[in-house]
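Q: Protein A?
A:
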Amino acid sequence: MKLPELKEKLKSKYIVRVVAGVLTIALVGTGIGATAVFAEKNSTAVTAEADSTTGSSKDADDIADKLMDSVSLKDNDADKDESVYLISDANGNVNKTIVVDHLKNKDKKDTLEDASNLSDIENVKGKEKFTQSGDKLTWQAGGKDIYYQGTATAEPPVTQKVTYYLDGKEISPEDLAGKSGKVKIRFDYTNTTSYTETVNGEKQTVSVPFAAITGLVLGDGFENIEVTNGKAEVSDSSSVVLGYALPGLKDSLGIKDGDLDGDVNIPEYMEMTADVKNFSMPAAMTFVVNASDYVSTDGIDTSDLDDMINDLKDASTQLQDGSKTLAEGTDTLADGLSTLQSKLGTFASGVGTLQNGLKTYTDGVSTLSGGLNTLGNSTGALVSGADKLNSGAGQLASGSATLKDRLKSYTDGANGLAKGASDLDAGIGTLAEKSGTLVDGATKLNDGAADLATGAKDLSDGMDKLNTGIQDVNVGATDLASGADQLKAGADKLNVSVNGAVDKNGNKISGDVVETLSTDMKVQIQTMLDSKFNNKDEIKQLLSSLKVDKITVDNVSEVTEVVAKRTDLGTIMGSEENYNNLLSGLYQMQGAVTLYKQFSSELQNNEQIKALKDGVSSLSTGINGIESGSKALAAGTKQLADSAPTLKDGAIALKNGTFNLKAGTDSLVNSIPTLTGGIKQLKDGSSQLNAGAAKLTSNNDTLNAGATALNVGASQLSAGTQSLMNSVPTLTSGIKQLVDGSNTLVANNAQLNSGASQLADGTNQIVSGVDQLTTGSKTLSEGAHTLADGMVQFNEEGINKILDAYNGDLKPFTNKLQAVIDAGEEYQTYSAIADGQTGSVKFIYKLASIDAKADSDK
């Protein structure tokens, strides 16, 4: 029977209204959430596919959730569940098709038989293998379900075309991005399936009853949104459009637009219009599902639909009651989430402050540890230097004692010489008086004078060397005293710095004192650099060739590195020896700068600071001894040096006198006839000898006093260096404690920072999740109330009318409707299915997003 004949016979259009109403209820009317078809959404296979092939984003996930909330399935007991992902451009043209199949191993079989025409097949959830022969697949399941994916090129059963308009004119999505004006977006769906069924004894061609459900996430700036065949959900945070269509259903039922009442619609497209500023569409997605998977037809007798209609009535009543309860529950959820959101904001702020503080702390600990480790590695040089200083001081004390003893022997000899000269003078006087024995006396006198002249010459030569040695010792002692003063000044500053830097509880070092000490040390080192390098002409020429104005504390390491690499600098310096001396000096100064940088680091550990304080105090005591001894040494050598010229004059006079004496004795022997003149000369020479001897002995006390003072100073110096040596173990022990403590702190840095980062990340995720839940709960609450109100209206205006229509004139139309449902039940797979298997399939179209362009013409 043709539809016009049926209309003429029944005189009613309720039959068409019922068809549309039943399918609409099944597809978009429930709004209660998916029960089976998307149950595996969070499985490994499907989640991986969505992430890797559809460009999944938060907007896409949100719209997917809303689309799933718009459909409800009958229980899905199929052997093979298939999800087809179609990646499209913004106009709906498919670029890639990826299929995910789930084989359900209900009986826990070792092998599962399947059929598939897909390419690039791979297991996406396990390691089970398969063999293939043509389209036949055999999986080694081992009792497990199988999830696999592949690619396809076959046309989908429903295609969609998306058309965009701006101010009434068609426009490409690329050109629409960022534009403003009146925007219209139209989705046209085409059902390409065809099945031949027998209807009322005649063969009819019908399509699979597919339903297309489309969701759009709109950008900012959309107002006055209107939707044809759908609805819009607008909130402060987002605008979402949901639309639906039943492509091919009117043709399958033989219905034309004029056959429908004004309040009944079987749509084949979806359309949205809005006033837009700076157009963007972050996400768009369409679900295409088989209506037969949504309406259970098991056990239905098409000749008698009374039971189904009664079930429909009961179900609508339950939906009405359930929607009311749902609305009340969503209100409670929204209130609780709002309170939680407020408290989480305060907590997240505290976590951020904690993370920043831990980062500053761990950076400081790492810097301190690096300096202390370098200081700890230098303790060996400190111990070695202290040992050498102590050894040298001991040798100096021993040498000064020897000098003291030998000077005593010298002064005793000088006194004896003076007495001999006096006796000689007296004897010559007697000789002058008793010239009778002149010849014998003159001969003996000549022999003695020769010996005396030789001794006097040796004495004079020795005095020259002694005088030079005394001068050198005096210069060295003076330099030692000056260095001791500087060393003491540095020690005093270090002692004041360390002692003054610890507060009354011994807890920490004062940053101001340490900074002042560090500055003073830097100035002293720079002064040494200027004296050793920067003020010397030959070094200035070299620095100019290296393009360096002067060597400073900050660049000494870089200059040393360049000089060490430039072996050709020996030519500029005049010799390799000069070059090597320069390089050695630079290495020494580089070491001094390294020590300065180490000691200028801020110290934080209380126990370590106490150990360092004790070491510095002992160091200061030792240096005080060094200063006292070096000053006494300098004073002694000064007295010795002051006496040296007089001593030298006496030696010269003695030498001259002995020469004159020898000349006199020679004359006496050779000129006995002129005895009187010779005796006179002899008398004169003895007088000079006596005078020289007197001068020689005049400074004996000064020499002995100087030697005694030198010996006292050397002994004090040795005692001071020994005290320094004794304090070294305490100092190195304190340094080791500092190094060990800082290394322990550094070892925990990574764990502290990692924990803080994990805490911050977790907190941010919780806050973000609660924000999303809060927004979602508001939307859910609004939707639940709308659903509750709509269910009341739907029950009164829809279900009751369906009952009236069914009881009036629907029954004659059931055979044609059954043919459509049968076609839907026959369509079980997009790819392929093995004999004897049952299947279900759904299609997910992911359209490309359209991003706003900040610089587009508005």
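Q: Protein B?
A:
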Amino acid sequence: MRVPLRWLGEYVDLPEDVSLEHVHAALVSVGFEEEAEHTFDLTGPIVVGRVMERLPEPQSNGKTINWCQVDVGESEPRGIVCGAHNFDVGDLVVVTLPGAVLPGPFPIAARKTYGHISDGMIASARELGLSEDHEGILRLADLGLDAPVGHDAIALLGLDDAAVEINVTPDRGYALSIRGVAREYAHATGATFTDPATTVTATHGDGFPVLIDDAAPIRGRVGATTFLTRTVRGIDATRPTPPWMRARLRLAGVRSISLPVDITNYVMLELGQPLHGYDLAKVQGGLTVRRASPGEHLTTLDGTDRTLDPQDLVIADDAGPVGLAGVMGGARTEMGAGTTDVLIEAARFEQVSIARTARRHKLGSEASRRFERGVDPLVAEPAASRAVQLLVELAGGTADELGSTVVDDAPPTPIVLHMDRAASVMGVDYSAAEILGTLRAIGAEVAESGPVLTITPPSWRPDLVDDVSLVEEIARIVGYGRIPSVLPVAPPGRGLSPSQRAARRVSNALAAVGLTEVVTAPFVSAVTAAQFPGIDPSGGPSVALANPLDRALPLLRRSGLPGLVEAVRRNVGRGLTDVAVYETARVFLPPAGAELGTADIPQGGALPSAATLAAMNASLPAQPRHVTVVLAGDRVLKQPGLAAQPWGIGDALDIARAIVWAVGNAELSVRQTVHPSFHPGRAAVLAIGETEIGVAGELLPSLTSELDLPRVVAALEIDLDALVAATPEALTVTPIVSFPAATQDLSLVVDDSVPAGALLDVIKTGAGDLLEYARLVDDYRGAGVNEGQKSLTFALRFRAADRTLTAAEASAARDTAVRRAGERFGATLRD
């Protein structure tokens, strides 16, 4: 909200030396955030001048300029070159003399042009920042002004004013007016406030037919509860808007259009009540407030033909809609230069209905901003009367008795407040005088009954609905400085959840081994969703967004791989070919068989049934936290005496083990699998016991080629929530054994189809408790091994906790493992 200071000073006492900083500080103290300061950004000398002589001079470029002699109240006229032609000798104009600075900034100096020394400039309204009109220079006669030559034109045109801009929160719509801001300034400073709504002489109207016919109210509330009309006849719509009004509108951020429209905007800014003016001659019959019919159209004042929704509240005459209620009027009844009779509308519309209409049509306006925040129901009549008054005074009209008054607003609901409630909520001992004084100052009616107060909020404060909101007002008006700053003490026994602790440990572990954490967007295309279906490739379709930010990315990810792969692709494309990144983020998995969407949700004010709510909750996608890793390029860079070592599936599996180790006391099992995102034969399913938690391997070569990535890209994805659930919370500490270990290698020949991980599991089980460590170290296929078979070599380490093992004991444990492997997979010792 922009607040011109002189306008503010009409309704609250301001200091003589008031500054923008002072007003901002006062308003900040009562809860309004400072936004900006606004001035006309010009300095003098800018004076009234009279054209004494005007000589047209055609130029070689086809343009005709005027060489003028202008009296500016000095001993001699000044010679000024002017390119405009909408003035003549004897006209009073605005002259910017050398040394003046116009908005831009545009400094004025005497300069040679078109063969003359132009000693100043005759200004237009646009050059002065008064309006966007640049059709010619500004003639004072066009504004109905007269002043002696040499008079200060800045003060004459009201260009010496300034405005503060504040941020008004949605619950305080009353402050979107000079009336509301003046009251708040009075709260902050104790200055005397005069309510402009009480200084207007009321006008009355009767005989104009108005009907409120809302067949589909929003949330059970009728679309309009107040609807007043007043009539002014015989106006001259071509009269200029007075400079003081134009300047105030400009500072307030509103464009000057025409005198009748400017008056309605001026009253809206002054009192907070949006108004609309109709050309009465264009209105057919009376006005009806109703919901739009299916397929109805309305051309609004911006020239756009709009298809109306059945939930849109419209104002209609006998020929159809003439306006979107509370948002924008219709072009058919627009006031124009030929308008002589004006019908003024002042109404109060239901907040939710107006907000939905404005957003539905993407048509936010100054009127809708105020209606959707709540308008004082008692200000409609003063606002309509104020508009009538200005149309009579400035446009030469005559107030007419034709009009209407429909009011069906319920009075504010009283609130019970205990005197000690403010202290218990805010931690401040407020005196009875402070509490009562504050409540009365904000306009509330207070009835005392001992320590219990019954408060009736003022009509302009729909946000005051309970005792806590009243306590907030007491704290705000008395001063936030009274509230002590006390740091809360964290309750014992609280902290991170197991899932949060696991996510932090995993992130720390991955960063410790040299990976870089990234954050990617959760949106993917249909093609990408098919390329990366996630840990479970048979999990069904991805969740589709009803209103995606980017139409090319309409789906929510099922996997963390798309974002990471795109990040790697971007880095590789910029020459960073060795990349190792990870992300811990949510994925979105729709429940099987659930219907997504909002088609079955009741519209308007109907409350969804328990069954509908249950169905909606059931249709929400599961959002497990996944940790995803992508590795491309070289793990070890080429250097003297050492060849480059690229990332591969082994590295992905090692990182997977590090993730499991970071979460807790669990053993990761690895089994070969087939996955549409991974290379056949180089993909593994990761599991804790029987619980599958993820997948790891090298991406499909055709996929990496399509994405312009290196041929070998290792990746893994683990469902962190599933890993945490499958991992015991209590960590088991393995004691350090001081007895020496016995190491042996074991080479077994098995069929190609036997997974190495499955064979390793059998060896671990068969070797028994003496086996401390076992790992695959070689996979050989070649001479000495039959076709269709392979030789797998495992490094084994045996150790006892209470003695030194003998070679015979270690060999016996190994032989038991070999026997079990033979029974299970037909494995034989390699010669």
